[in-house]
Amino acid sequence: MKRLLNILLVVVFSIAIILPNATHAGDWIKHGDEWLTISGGVFISKIDSTLSVDSSSLGDGTTVDLEDDLDLGENNTTFWGDVTWRFSKKHRISASFFQFKRDAKATATDDLQIGDEIYPAGASLSTEFTIDVVPITYSYSFLKKEKYEFGGTLGLHWSTLSFDVAGSVSLGNLDADASISADAAAPMPLFGLLYDYHFTDRWTVGALAELFFLDLNDDTFAFSGTITNLRLSTDYWIFNNVGLGTAINWFALDVEIDDSDWKGGIDYQYLGLQFYAKIRF
What is the CATH number of the domain that holds 145? Predict the structure, then answer.
């Protein structure tokens, strides 16, 4: 990721040097007149998560706190990227990507049933948990003025979950190794509202609130639960085409999963800061 960030910074600052010399004051892009915006930077987050993996033979699995029970770190820093295409005056489509990947080694303090395996207290556990997040959002502006823009959003927050635990125990007469894996793709629709206010031609603040309750049961998806996404951001355009921004983002996913590769549930939330560079055309 460090290499990717270095490449991003080189690209952004190269454009920052070239583009200002290629444009004139009269060519300044007004808010809402851009047709393409590309953003990239770091996402620093604090995570709180629990999950369970059920078994057809043993029943409901233990609700495991990933931070307390398995020692996965609460803090995570990752790359965040976004592309927004304004294909009409009031219509936009955006797609983002980021990944949370954590791993740790821990000693079980209580008996844990995860899937078809029971790890007794004292077992040594190696855990890896990864979430790939790809939010895809369509936005329509109900009101679009010189100073502000207010609209509604319809999107799909696609999360791919991967959970792996390998455990070993050597207690008295018990000497055994066991591992379990669970994977699922959680496509969660979202409806929301957005508002951008332009203090000047260079400085904008924005707010986004999205929420949805989902109950799906078919051959393709099997999820039920809620998802909430809140984001507050501010951007400043240093040059006509190049800017910097920061945002605070709170997200919560609470779903029950009934899939062939994962039966159980997950409650996952994070609060994080995003620092990024932006290019617009």
Answer: 2.40.128.90
> Residue 187 carries which side chain, given as an amino acid letter?
P
DSSP string, 248-259: EEEEEEEEEEEE
Half-sphere exposure (CA, 13 Å, Cβ side) for 208? 22
> Rounded distance, CA 179 to CA 114, Å?
9
Q: Are 114 and 151 in contact (CB under 8 A)?
A: no
DSSP letter at 221 equals -
12: containing domain: 2-280
CA distance 180 to 118: 10
Which residues lie across from 192 on neighbouring strands? 153, 210
Q: Are strands 75-88 and 223-237 parallel, antiparallel or unpaired?
A: unpaired
d(CA 268, CA 250): 11
Count of domains forming the chain: 1
Q: Say whether 2 sits in a helix, a strand or coil.
A: helix
Alpha-carbon dihedral angle through residues 18, 20, 24, 27, given to the nearest 10 degrees: 100
3-state secondary structure of 14: helix
On whether the pTM is more than 0.85, the answer is: no
Helix (H) or strand (E) holding 11: helix 2-22
pLDDT digits (tens, 9 = 90+) for 107-162: 988 999 998 888 888 888 899 999 998 999 999 999 999 999 999 999 888 888 89
Looking at residue 22, its pLDDT comes to 45
Q: Write out the two tokens for 48.
A: 């709180």
The residue behind tokens 């033979």 is 57
Q: Are strands 117-119 and 36-53 parallel, antiparallel or unpaired?
A: unpaired
